[in-house]
Design a protein that fits this description.
heterodimer; A: about 425 residues; alpha+beta; Butyryl-Coa Dehydrogenase, subunit A, domain 1; Butyryl-CoA Dehydrogenase, subunit A, domain 2; Butyryl-CoA Dehydrogenase, subunit A, domain 3; 4-stranded antiparallel β-sheet; 13 helices; about 50% helix; B: about 375 residues
Chain lengths: ~425, ~375
Amino acid sequence: MISFEKSKAVVQAQYLIQTVADNMMRPVSRYFDEEEGEIPWDYIEFMHGALRQMGSASLTPDHEKQKEAEKAKKPRQAYVVMAHQIEMLSWGDVGFYLCTPRGGLGSAAVESAGTPEQKDKFLSILNGEKPIFTSMAITEADAGSDNSAIRATAVLDEETNEWILNGEKIFVTAGRLSMENTEGYTVIWASLDLEAGRSGIRSFVVPAGTPGFKIAKKEEKLGIRVSDTVTFVLEDCRVPYDHILGNPKIEKSTEGFKGAMQTFNVTRPLVAATGLGVARAALEEVKKMLEEQGVVLRDGLPRNKMTSIERDVIDMERMVRSSWLLTLKAIWMSDNKISNAKESAMSKLHAGDVSSKVTQKAVELLGPMGYSREFLLEKWMRDAKITDIYEGTGQINRLVAARAILGYRGKDLR
Amino acid sequence: MYSFEPNEEQKMLIDVAKRYAETDLRPAAHEAEEEGIFDPKLIEKGWELGILQASIPDTYGGFGDRSLLTSVLALEELAVGDMAGALSILAPSLFVTPILIAGTEEQKTNWIPPVIEAEWKAYTAAMIEYAYDYDPNELKTTATLDGDSYLLKGEKRFVPFADQAEAIIVYANLDGKTQGFIVPKGLEGLEVGEREATLGTNGLQTFSLVLDNVKVPKANRLGGEAGHDFAPILAAAQTSLAAVAVGVARASFEYARDYSKERFVLGSFIAQKQSIAFMIAEMAAEVEAIRLLTWEAAYMLDKGEETAAHSAYLALMGAIDMAMMVTDRGVQILGGHGYIREHPVELWFRNGRGIASLTGLVMG
């Protein structure tokens, strides 16, 4: 039955996180934007402690609890709750959200592609005394969204039963937090056989401190500056055999690769949620600042009676809301195990547009105040732009969505 | 807890509406538009699907409880078939729904069953007025108390089936507030004007209506002597129009999508070119986004949430842009063929623009 009722879990999560956002993010948002490279330990420690107390391994849904819910025939809502958490954290500060310990893309990959043993091993360590980060490294200098072009390699050393990883990965989010600042791990995408193309690509868990692994470069960015983005270099980096996620054998089919791509069906709406959190922050701030400037924003007028500013604000509002619902539907499908390649790509491309447009409009509407670093509007405009870039650019997501809509495969539409 | 899956009853209704839209409405749409009339037999067939009847409690001759959400789901499907057809079938809802929302018990018992229990008859409403800034909350048509009656004065436009209407709900400005009045046919001063000619939806017969001090008994004021709150009626109209917009846009999107897979140009199907494929992806996303916004508004209205009126308004604001964006692209993707009236995309393009102007023409 169609329902737009927030569950208790969602309401609680929103309430809790808004408090965190108000107290631990917004007051230092500007500082960490200006001081790129500093680590927001207060926030990290706090979130680690809070999540630990709540008994959740990370923001990522607990697979055991999910199973229990399934057995009890309760509706699954873990991802929907998570989307709300992420949206609210990003409303606080999306860069900070990316610095949320106990999880990240690395653990999400384990969650979606790992065996039960791997899940136990790599998810339970998140629950330790000290905060831990995980990251995922896919992109290479010549392999962005076209990850079949990955050149990093994984070779099995049959004598020691270890995988030997070689290659270079760029643009790794939280790479430093996961591999240098905490005892976390990263998930590296590499090829078992460069001739095999996509069917040869697997992902490997590489723990912090593994010999042969190093961080080569730290990027300076337009926005989300508090979150680190780095380059990894792997030189004969060895990990145990059971650190491979998925089938170690190369099958003719690309099932393994598809499995990896499934991760995106979950992460894309979650990334959409980050952008929409920023957009909502900008929208609310614009309304507040305009009102402080003496602008009355009237509600319910027909288009032709509105001022230009009223039109802009209502457009922003409906864009944010409709995009959010699109995102919720996509992630709700993940909870309910309904295939959502199309919906997740659509939510991402839509939210990428919306978060950019809304935050840019917000700066415009406040005139010189929008442009000033005295307020956060300009920062949010910079922060929001990443939504349309990572986890597949808006253009790549258009390709993915269009293929799904048209019933095309990669070779039909590229 | 959030859910995006219609219940069994809704699925059945969607199915019924969809089938009718495909097999009856769509094939008749072109001729109806060109001739300016929908075959009454088709309208009767659509009426018999019981979409309106299903949301009227049995006390008043129907067989279900009112759910705007359910109506919205059906309305979208009908509009995928044809907007003018959908609006024609549901014209009686323009009369019944406001009474159900805001009428007194007596008004409900007197006026609803004759509409619901019979075959399709022209019952309608007059809300729209000629003004660039037409605003249902600030109508120019006035109602003035005169002894035991109200005098209605003004001019209404785009009134569906006004020429044959048994009764019309006329919306007028009473001391600055919009109020509905039940106006039966044949009252003195009630003058049906010319058949309207419009950019699109010409299959729906609309007329102008002049009210020259039409004397309406006090008891015919919607909600009785105390009158009524106009907000929920307006919200239902906005949400329903948004649902129609989604239907029209979906029709255009689906047609263009299918066409693009058949049209071969410069070595590939046009759907295989990013310029077209990206347009299609954006159309799909926008239709779905506004669709959910419309569902949410309907859901909130059904629940009587405080923010519901704003949700409905927001849905319509979104639907106005979405409908134009998508139907414009529908024409564009078909190129020259899109401009030819043999293909339906040009009609949807014209209809799509109507969403900006037609609040009050449909109410589910």
